[in-house]
């Protein structure tokens, strides 16, 4: 039996908006209609698809249908717009992006796509493709260069990070010592437990895994502030740190060394006008900010 596209789009709306009531408002139907569509889809598939939690989440069986439902909803909206010759409403586009990109070069790209509303997610760049793989988002800024099934991938450039510290931290832990000798004991600032950049740099310098004192600061602006205030050393994007290193407000811990993170744009393989416009805008914004 073929899957009903209306039921699939309703299923995607429940997952995207987090509840049956929110999906009903987005689809301009009653919560009862949403519930009936989901039950009918579950009967066809023969599996429970939605975990009735707060927010609603797909079950293991439902996860495979999230992306399909979202693709149908997007293409249906664009087809209606084309048939009617006017916009019926802005398409909702879910995107996941790493925090440093979101805090710097990514948002201007969204301003160049006025015919969409955006549902932004943040995660470590090494994990953003997981949401794309699950169908939760339509596009991702990621370090994964291998295409997720059903997606296209384009290179964006390299985000370069410099190992820096406030002058007081440098004086207390690094002055008169080689970085390899100081890094095992010097306090470190990392974004969260998924963030491995600082540990990667320390391993490259020392040749071994380290376990120094670590502050977790899970916001880009707060992370930057934590390094500047002297909680510990950390890796900052070069466009945020270079001028302060030159002015003496930050100290480069290993001049000539840096960490490069290649970034890629992965997005659903659909002939979608809004995804095409977003891709063009993202590539243009990245070209001005990344190496």
Automatic annotation (TrEMBL):
One of its GO terms (molecular function) is DNA-binding transcription factor activity. Pfam families: HTH_1, LysR_substrate. Residues 3-59 form the HTH lysR-type domain. InterPro entries: ArgP (IPR017685), LTTR (IPR050176), LysR_HTH_N (IPR000847), LysR_subst-bd (IPR005119), WH-like_DNA-bd_sf (IPR036388), WH_DNA-bd_sf (IPR036390). The keyword Transferase does not apply. Keywords: Activator, DNA-binding, Transcription, Transcription regulation. Signal peptide: none annotated. The keyword DNA-binding applies. Belongs to the LysR transcriptional regulatory family. This is LysR family transcriptional regulator (Chromosome initiation inhibitor). It comes from Catenuloplanes niger.
């Amino acid at each position: 039996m073929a899957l009903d596209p209306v039921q699939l789009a309703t299923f995607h709306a429940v997952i995207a908006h987090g509840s049956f009531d929110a999906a009903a408002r987005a689809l301009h139907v009653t919560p009862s209609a949403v519930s009936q569509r989901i039950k009918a889809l579950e009967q066809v598939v023969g599996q429970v698809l939605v975990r009735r939690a707060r927010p609603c989440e797909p079950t293991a069986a439902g996860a495979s249908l999230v992306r399909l439902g979202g693709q149908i909803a997007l293409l249906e909206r664009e087809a209606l717009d084309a048939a009617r010759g006017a916009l019926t409403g802005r398409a909702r586009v879910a995107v996941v992006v790493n925090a440093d990109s979101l805090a710097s070069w990514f948002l201007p790209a969204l301003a160049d796509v006025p015919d969409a509303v955006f549902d932004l997610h943040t995660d470590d760049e090494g994990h953003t493709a997981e949401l794309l793989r699950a169908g939760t988002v339509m596009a991702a800024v990621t370090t994964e260069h291998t295409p997720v099934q059903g997606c296209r991938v384009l290179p964006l450039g390299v985000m370069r990070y410099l190992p820096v510290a406030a002058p007081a931290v440098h004086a207390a832990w690094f002055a008169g010592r080689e970085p390899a000798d100081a890094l095992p004991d010097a306090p470190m600032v990392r974004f969260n437990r998924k963030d491995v950049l600082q540990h990667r740099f320390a391993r490259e310098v020392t040749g071994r895994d380290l376990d120094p004192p670590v502050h977790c600061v899970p916001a880009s602006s707060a992370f930057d502030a934590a390094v500047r205030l002297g909680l510990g050393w950390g890796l900052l994007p070069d466009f945020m740190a270079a001028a302060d290193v030159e002015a003496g407000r930050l100290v480069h811990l290993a001049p000539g060394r840096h960490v490069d993170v290649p970034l890629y744009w992965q997005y659903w393989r659909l002939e979608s006008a809004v995804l095409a416009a977003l891709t063009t805008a993202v590539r243009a914004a990245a070209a001005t900010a990344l190496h």
